[in-house]
Amino acid sequence: MTSDSDRRRLLRLARETITAHVAGAPVPSVDLDGVCGRRGAAFVTLHARNELRGCIGHLEIDDPLGHVVPRCAIGACSHDPRFPAVVERELPDIEIELSLLGPLESIRGASDIEIGRHGLVVELGWNRGLLLPQVAVEWKWNADQFLEHTCRKAGLPRAAWKDGARLWRFEAEVFSETRLAG
User: Fold this and answer.
1) Is the domain covering 4-101 a CATH 3.40.190.10 domain?
2) Domain range 105-171, CATH architecture
3) CATH 3.30.1490.150 residue ranges in the chain?
4) If pLDDT is split at 50, 70 and 90, which confidence band does 182 have?
5) Cα separation of 9 and 14, whole Å?
6) How many whole angstroms separate alpha carbon 51 and alpha carbon 177?
7) pLDDT tens digits, 80-118
8) Which residues does residue 118 pair with via DSSP β-bridges, in sequence order?
């Protein structure tokens, strides 16, 4: 479990990186000590006025969080293909959420999923899709629906999880600027 002070540090790093990137300024340098030196997988999710504004992540646990979080923050604000790049006037409305991912565990199907605890990865051929644990809770999906939507995210038929797709679950530690402020 990541301490509140380490969570604040990672959120501040994401915020400072996004602010600098959007302004065209150099991104902050990062000391790879403590939590920033810990190798990890992470997703940076941006919301504006309670609507998704960008989400990009790094699935492998192979780089320090001090590199992963800024890279994903820049991706979320400027490279999510679903959205135009964030502009400076939007920055006050941007809420940052971080998801620190645990390792992937191979699963067989819906009975191996606990909604609210597990995120999913589905893969078949070149197609791969991932949904974070909080997505199923937000949309009030059951495990079958969660698998179907992860298949769709991968560009696969909804039932691909029953027809040969490889399935993984993972846990994530999810926190945001708002939830830490309270």
Assistant:
1) no
2) 2-Layer Sandwich (3.30)
3) 105-171
4) very low
5) 9
6) 15
7) 999 999 999 999 999 999 999 999 999 999 999 999 999
8) 171
- Name the band, by pLDDT with cuts 50, 70 and 90, for residue 179: confident
Give the whole-angstrom CA distance, residue 137 versus residue 117: 9
Token reading at 63: 């780089």
| 3 secondary structure, DSSP code | -
Burial grade of 33 (CB within 10 A; 0-12, 13-18, 19 or more): exposed
Indicate the pTM of the whole model: 0.94
For the chain, where do the domains classified as CATH 3.30.700.20 start and end? 4-101
In angstroms, what is the C-alpha Rg of the chain? 16
Q: 125 and 166 in contact (C-beta within 8 Å)?
A: no
Instruction: Return the closest-CA partner of residue 132 out of 56, 72, 68, 61.
Output: 56
Secondary structure (DSSP) of 125-167? TTEEEEE-HHHHHHHT--HHHHHHHHHHHTTS-GGGGGTT-EE
